Amino acid sequence: MNFTPYVTGTASAQKPYEPYYWDPVYDVTDNFGDFDDDGKDIGDGVLDNPGDIIFHKKTRTGQKDSYSLGVGFSITFSRPLDQKLQDQCKEAAAANIALMQQQAANKRLDFELARLKNCGQLIKDGINFHPKSPYYKICADVVVRNKTEIAPHTHNIP
């Protein structure tokens, strides 16, 4: 089984943001160009002042920013069709872990044997760290037995 939470989001905006614009209002009057039966001026179907702007009116653009946020989760169930392959994979992983653990144990043994040999030889030679040294504990657990030679020394006999 696989459980996956998710969060998605989007933002859409137009820059620069302009909520209004000034829309020109054109002169559409048609009062001249023809006459009625009484001889008074009337429109002839052609604008009297084409292209003339009377004023500007404030017009809303309808421009909006848009934001969305989606939160949820997905659950997936899967079952391998070949169980033998999955078992082999688990066995291979277990064997690999065992091999790595054995290699680590071998390296630890090599380290401890080298420490034992070097500390033992140094103790035989009468060389060691001072007991207050932080390195004294490195060879503190090494014991030398059946020493066949005795370092030259003297004793005071009263």
Short description, anyone?
This protein is of the alpha+beta class and 158 residues long.
The main β sheet shows up as: 2 strands, antiparallel
Oligomer: single chain
Distance between the termini: 87 Å
Strand content: 25-35%
**Side-by-side strand order of the widest sheet:** 1-6
The helix tally amounts to 1
| Radius of gyration, CA atoms, in whole angstroms | 50 Å
Write down how many β-strands occur, each being a DSSP E stretch of 2 or more residues: 6
Q: Look at the helices and sheets and give the structural class.
A: alpha+beta
Low-pLDDT residue intervals, each spanning 5 or more residues: none
What is the N-to-C order of secondary-structure elements (H for helix, E for strand)?
A: EEEEEEH
The total number of structural domains is 2
Mean pLDDT: 91
The gross shape turns out to be elongated
> How helical, in percent, are the residues?
25-40%
